[in-house]
Amino acid sequence: MKLNEIRDREGSTKNRKRIGRGIGSGTGKTGGRGVKGQKARSGVAVNGFEGGQMPIYRRLPKRGFTNISAKDYNTVSLGRIQAAVDAGKLSASGMIDAAALIAAGVVRRIKDGVRVVADGEVTAKLNLDVAGASRAAVEKVEKAGGSVKVAAKAEASA
Q: Which structural domain, as residue segments, surrounds residue 108?
């Protein structure tokens, strides 16, 4: 086989429909748009229009709000951290912070900080420095002989 002989598998691609090319093509004259009217014309988008009736998005009351000061934490389970330690991507001896988790490939980006949750088991003695941690996660880490330093609580008290 040569590079110039490479082809797609038979039937893997379809030829495009040539719209509006004569009545014999089956898609001539109106070009698959039906007959006349607003939607037969170009540049029409009538999403949410209900024929003059009050649309559903205006009939229903507004609810809720977006909290502009809400923090978006990147959640990491203890099981994933333990798996990274077992694989040799993270060192259990040093301080494990957001930068170390990114370097190990446990999280992709920091967002507003990393929050640790208690999913999975911990066997290594971990020293975590994170923006948040669940109560159960802190208990599991301390039971294994490690420590958790939560930065969010330090900011709140200061």
A: 74-157
